[in-house]
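Explain this one:

_____
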Amino acid sequence: MTSVAKTHRAVIIDEGWRSGSISAEISARIMEKAFYELDAPVERICAAEVPMPYANQLERAALPQAATIVQTVRRMVMHDG
């Protein structure tokens, strides 16, 4: 909550699925406790909702990657409302 108060934004990265994940719980708690501090919606970057593939290339495609995280954060920072 201290970070949200400082930055007015929140990005949650989770290797779990979006549905029913810990990122959903964290997002809910941020919305309950720091809603008025937010200047943008909470962003969640999660794994694709597919069975975890064994092949390395497919695993990388299913999990959050640095490029996606950077792109999301830049979009959030550049958007001033």
In short: Residues 2-78 form a domain with the Rossmann fold fold (CATH 3.40.50.920). The mean pLDDT is 93. Helices lie at 2-7, 22-34, 56-62, 66-78.
